[in-house]
Amino acid sequence: MSVARRPLLTATAAGTLLCALWFVPSANATDEELAAEQRRAVVAQSEQELRLADTGGVDTTPYLLGGTGFLVVGAGFVTLAMRRGGRAY
């Protein structure tokens, strides 16, 4: 297999996998009438509470640090790939 065909085959395999996963049915096996009653109960409960923008108690620091760390590592990989891209092996 030539080197030029590898990216094409990889893209074809990825596209085929995504198309196959598109048609996988969801595992939602709830009774529709029961689900409608539960929705009405949740709406009634939320109308009683009426708390808007209640974001207290959630510490987002680990998410920010983790996201920043992944961003830095990704930028490092891109920089490394660009440096190696100029060399012919």
TrEMBL record:
The chain crosses the membrane at residues 63-82. PROSITE patterns: TAT. Keywords: Membrane, Signal, Transmembrane, Transmembrane helix. InterPro entries: TAT_signal (IPR006311). Residues 1-29 form the signal peptide. It comes from the Bacteria. This is Uncharacterized protein.
